[in-house]
């Protein structure tokens, strides 16, 4: 008598499918934010799936996510089309990020320990090394680790979670590939670290705000350069 067949690991497969959907959404979101996918462009399921090396299902789920975010809309019998991205949209996105980040920065300056500050210094050195290597993915990852450590030092996990989700709209690749952004970011981080050691709340908040002002301007300049709004 044959043994009963073992059930397939549906849960694991579902998790992987969700991860793929998130990865596709992140890629499409970055392409929309940087103007690679311009307003009015139709995103074809089969073409996108082939380009990203995935099946159609995660692309369809990613587009559903982006539709909920107002980045694409579904036109009957035609498919998903990229929604116009305005200067006001950019300002709103960065305003929200900066507002949350400044609140976290103020808390970090009050609560962070010397050990956590030392860790920030190590992570910033790692960012500098990644910039020297010139590999965009490494730079994006190193920048993420620095800010994650800073935000975790606040103990305000829920607020940090909100910032993480808003930060999805910040296309890290365009900053990491900008030759002038890297040295500026490392230098600003060093100033932040010095201010944290002094428990200088005002300076930490001011520097944090400046990072987002700079990031917004760099993105607007890029979109102007490629003629997104002409």
Biggest sheet architecture: 3 strands, antiparallel
Given helix and strand content, the structural type is mainly alpha
Helix coverage percent of residues? over 70%
Give the total of beta strands.
3
CATH topology of the largest domain: Four Helix Bundle (Hemerythrin (Met), subunit A)
Short summary:
The chain has 230 residues and is mainly alpha-helical.
What can you see in these coordinates?
- This protein has 230 residues and is mainly alpha-helical.
- It folds into two domains: 10-82, Arc Repressor Mutant, subunit A (Orthogonal Bundle), CATH 1.10.10.10; 87-226, Four Helix Bundle (Hemerythrin (Met), subunit A), CATH 1.20.120.
- Helix content is 72%, strand content 4%.
- It has helices spanning 10-33, 45-52, 56-68, 87-111, 114-133, 136-152, 157-166, 172-176, 181-198, 201-225, and strands spanning 42-43, 72-75, 79-82.
- The chain has a three-stranded antiparallel β-sheet.
- Helix 4 packs antiparallel against helix 7, helix 5 packs antiparallel against helix 9 and helix 9 packs antiparallel against helix 10 (201-225).
- Keywords: DNA-binding, Transcription, Transcription regulation.
Secondary-structure map:
Layout: H1 10-33, E1 42-43, H2 45-52, H3 56-68, E2 72-75, E3 79-82, H4 87-111, H5 114-133, H6 136-152, H7 157-166, H8 172-176, H9 181-198, H10 201-225
Helix pairs in contact: 1-3, 2-3, 4-7, 4-10, 5-6, 5-9, 9-10
